[in-house]
């Protein structure tokens, strides 16, 4: 909580997220009595914490809810869409060259 408050105080952009877990791991966290209570608290409180400071929270924890489209976009069950690869990697060519904005100063352009 302190880290989110600090980021907000400095005007930093923040996106909270829960990483995707394999289905067996997710089921263990959600249903095993050793973990389920703590997991339930996290699932409900983490989005609220980020929302309190105006930040989004992406719950990617259940990998079964994720699906990749053929247009290089991940689509989530809630309809949210994000690029599957960063824009700087989508050159369309086999060389995957860096765009000029990503090249180091003084380096020659690749041929």
What can be said about this structure in brief?
This protein is of the alpha+beta class and 111 residues long. The protein contains three helices and five strands, in the order αβααββββ. A hairpin with a 4-residue loop joins β3 and β4.
The total number of structural domains is 1
Low-confidence stretches: 88-105
What is the general shape?
Answer: flat
> What is the terminal separation in angstroms?
48 Å
Largest sheet: 3 strands, antiparallel
Q: What portion of residues is helical?
A: 25-40%
Strands of the widest sheet, in order across it, are 3-4-5
Strand content: 5-15%
Q: What is the CA-atom radius of gyration, in angstroms?
A: 19 Å
> H/E order of the elements?
HEHHEEEE
Number of E strands: 5
Structural class: alpha+beta
Task: Let me know the average pLDDT.
Answer: 76
Q: Number of helical runs?
A: 3
Task: Describe this protein with a few key phrases.
111 residues, alpha+beta, two-stranded parallel ribbon, 3 helices
Reconstruct the topology from this structure.
Layout (H helix, E strand, L loop, with lengths): L1 H8 L6 E3 L4 H9 L4 H17 L4 E3 L6 E3 L4 E4 L4 E3 L28
Parallel strand pairs: 1-2
Antiparallel strand pairs: 3-4, 4-5
Helix pairs in contact: 2-3
Describe the structure in your own words.
The protein has one domain. 31% of the residues lie in helices and 14% in strands. It has three helices and five strands, in the order H-E-H-H-E-E-E-E. It has helices at residues 2-9, 23-31, 36-52; strands spanning 16-18, 57-59, 66-68, 73-76, 81-83. The strands form two sheets. Strands 3-4-5 form a three-stranded antiparallel β-sheet, with no helix packed on it. Strand 4 (73-76) and strand 5 (81-83) form a beta hairpin. The radius of gyration is 19 Å and the shape is flat. Residues 88-105 have low confidence and may be disordered.
């Amino acid at each position: 909580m302190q880290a989110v408050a600090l980021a907000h105080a400095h005007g930093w952009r923040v996106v909270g997220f829960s990483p995707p877990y394999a289905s067996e791991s997710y089921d263990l966290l959600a249903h095993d009595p050793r973990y389920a209570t703590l997991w339930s608290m996290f699932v409900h409180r983490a989005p609220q914490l980020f929302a309190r400071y105006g930040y989004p929270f992406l719950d990617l924890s259940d990998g079964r809810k994720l699906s990749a489209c053929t247009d290089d976009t991940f689509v989530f069950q809630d309809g949210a869409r994000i690029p599957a690869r960063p824009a700087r990697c989508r050159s369309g060519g086999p060389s995957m060259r860096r765009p000029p904005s990503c090249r180091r100063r003084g380096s020659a352009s690749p041929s």
